[in-house]
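REQUEST ID: PR-0412
SUBMITTED BY: lab tech R.K.
PRIORITY: routine
TASK: structure prediction, single protein chain
INPUT:
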Amino acid sequence: MSWQRLVAMARKEVLQIIRDPRSVGIVVAMPVIMMLAFGYGVSLDIKHIPVYVLDREGSRQSQDLLKRFQASEYFHVVRTVDTYPALVRAIDEGHCRFAIVVPWDFSRRLNAGGPVSVQALIDAADSNTANLAIAYSQAVVQAYSQKVQLDWLRRRGQSDVRAPISIDARTWFNENLESMDNIVPGVIAIVIAVIGTFLTALTIAREWERGTMEQLISTPVTALEIMLGKLAPYFVIGLLDTCLCALLGIWWFGVPFRGHWSVFFLSSTLFLLVVLSTGYFFSVVAKSQLAASQISLLATFLPAFLLSGFV
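STATUS: complete
OUTPUT:
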């Protein structure tokens, strides 16, 4: 293998990339667009859900429960209504997604030590928001219920009441359970897979379509030199895109980076080698830019997005 021919082949591919504005746009714009689109468009964190309230009793205890919803970062009590039809109309018209109905005998049942139910109305047009709203509301009500039970037991002389079993949960790597910290690293892998495979899928196919492959075959350059010379520029581009996506994730989206940069770049290098080789294989087999690009998207984007666990 001649290093001079290898460098010349790589230089030829760099000039080809520069002269093709579409390739430059894919290299520069697509990583940024995909990071911003997925970073802001795909979020599982639901906060400040608009809430309407119908308090049929208006006692101190019912207001104490409603203040717990107001104090939660997941809910925002927008308005208090006087009738049930007004509550239903607010949900139908989209003024709120969550509504709370406190019964008229709320405090009497609590003081008697019996069970009491609070009605929650949820707009389930968005199932993800509805499920999260149910979980958040159950947590708020459960915390208030435990406080009421402890107060009831203390009034009857049991001053020190403790649960026999308690769970001390510790969340690793994503302490605040922010969906952004899970989504953005997955987007980086998707960007590398899609861009790396898509760009290298056009290398050999472009030579066949433009009729320059016969000229390459007639030169002293070997098949290994052609492959390495064509993949080397895209390998550097892939590393630059990886750095760009990582910096966007850390500095723009605030995703914490924990670990060693050397391990990150080593794993990215191994992943890029597989991705670029896959795209090059599609380019050799298809011999058409359109067919190679379609095969590369089907073989990388769908598995990386749907089958990898990202969704």
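NOTES: The first helix runs from residue 3 to 19.
REVIEWED BY: pending
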